[in-house]
Design brief:
alpha+beta, five-stranded mixed beta sheet, 7 helices, elongated
């Protein structure tokens, strides 16, 4: 069985195309493309075919299954095109669910000027307008690194500023808490911009007005190319936005991958056990 995975690559902050070849249980998946400009189509015939374009080059890949793990924000933007189109129930859920924005400002220092034993510390903004701006700082423990958070409207506004502006604001907050003479310049910094990233369009899902926890279950449901036929589903979905019990978390995304791997294996290989066998062993 060949499995084709559409996923977000955190190393390149781009979309990746990954093949899992047959009879390679102990081997690593093969990354076909690590910087895909866009996917043109997911065709759900007898075998799954996807057409990708990167740097002007178009290729077609065939597999038995497609597992889509791109963020919910990408699905909302309709960046990926499906042929046949996704059913209405899936599109409705995609648009009904919320997808928020949370940006991070990573500040790497030569030394800790804060209490290294604390997990995090907060900052209360002086005005309502700046609510959500640099309101929390995470301590990385094993390194003199702080991660400041930008949430809500503040996260979206920050994406219009240059890095040095955001970093100076973060340092100003820290100097107000620890004193100007105690806060050195960071030796390295990183500022995320998830909302404007075309392969993210945000950070985490949430239950929006009119939505419910059941929508996570609907997002996790696979799609058949012909619902009225006996052809098994060829299109599967994973990601934090498909995990009702652990949404908006890394472990939720990881567990959803395990869930879909089991679902796909059961469909094509068959479960190596039955409920009766399990109950008999437990007895």
């Amino acid at each position: 069985m060949r499995l084709l995975v559409h996923c977000l690559s955190p190393r390149t902050i781009s979309c990746s195309l990954v093949f899992v070849e047959p009879n390679t249980y102990l081997s690593m998946p093969t990354v076909v493309y690590n910087s895909i400009d866009w996917f043109c189509m997911c065709s759900l015939g007898g075998a799954v075919t996807t057409v990708s374009t990167t740097s002007g080059k178009s290729e077609t890949f065939e597999a038995d299954v497609i597992l889509v793990t791109v963020p919910l924000g990408v699905l909302k933007e309709s960046t990926l095109q499906f042929d046949p189109p996704l059913p209405e129930w899936k599109n409705v859920v995609i648009q009904r669910m919320g997808f928020g924005n949370l940006n991070k400002v990573v500040l790497c220092f030569d030394r800790c000027f804060w209490n290294p034993k604390v997990n995090l510390f907060g900052h209360v903004a002086s005005t309502t307008a700046s609510r959500g701006e640099l309101f929390l700082f995470w301590n990385l423990y094993k390194a003199p690194v702080l991660i400041a958070l930008l949430a809500g409207d503040a996260a979206t506004r920050s994406e219009t500023f240059q890095d040095h502006v955001i970093i100076e604001r973060a340092l100003r907050v820290l100097k107000g808490m620890y004193g100007s003479s105690n806060v050195p310049q960071p030796r390295e910094t990183l500022v995320t911009r998830w909302k404007t990233d075309e392969w993210a369009r945000g950070s985490y899902s949430y239950v929006a007005t009119g939505s419910s926890g059941g929508d996570y279950d609907m997002m996790a449901k696979p799609v058949s190319c012909d619902p009225g036929s006996s052809i098994p589903p060829r299109l599967f979905f994973a990601g934090e936005h498909t995990m009702r019990n652990y949404p908006a978390t890394v472990h939720g995304a990881f567990l959803s991958g395990l869930r879909e791997a089991a679902r796909i294996a059961d469909q094509f290989i068959g479960a190596p056990y039955s409920a009766s066998e399990l109950s008999g062993k437990s007895a």
